[in-house]
Design brief:
- By secondary structure, this protein is α+β, with helices and mostly antiparallel strands.
- The protein is built from four helices and five strands; from the N terminus they run αββααβββα.
- Strand 1 (29-38) and strand 2 (41-49) form a beta hairpin.
- Helix 3 crosses helix 4.
- It is elongated and about 80 Å long.
Length: 133
Amino acid sequence: MSLPKLRDIFRAMQKLLLALGAAVGLAGCVSTQEIPLSANSYQLEVSGTGRFGAGAVPQTTLRRAAELTLEKGFTHFVLGSATMQTAHTYAGQASIVPLIATTRSNSVTVRMFRPGENPNALDARSILQTYGE
């Protein structure tokens, strides 16, 4: 195989690897963890990485709080003691383009109630209808 052909193949492979790396970095993922505090309270930790994973953290937090409320036999919930963090980390470089990894995390206390116990509480079923199950 000639040298020019090898260069073309090498350049095509570089572009493919760059596109693959960008796709993985943009896709991201979201993870959740629930820590029981009492019969009707949980600490909910939600973190996401990548462009779409980090962007989904607020909605995932609200949706998971609603799911957890219904799983534990309650119908309504209130969020409290929230902390939110966003970090941007240099993850390397592809050709001349720097790759930046974004991480976002929420930590929130979920207090759960039955109908009528707290007039300011959010209805878990309504939240799930709005943000999807």
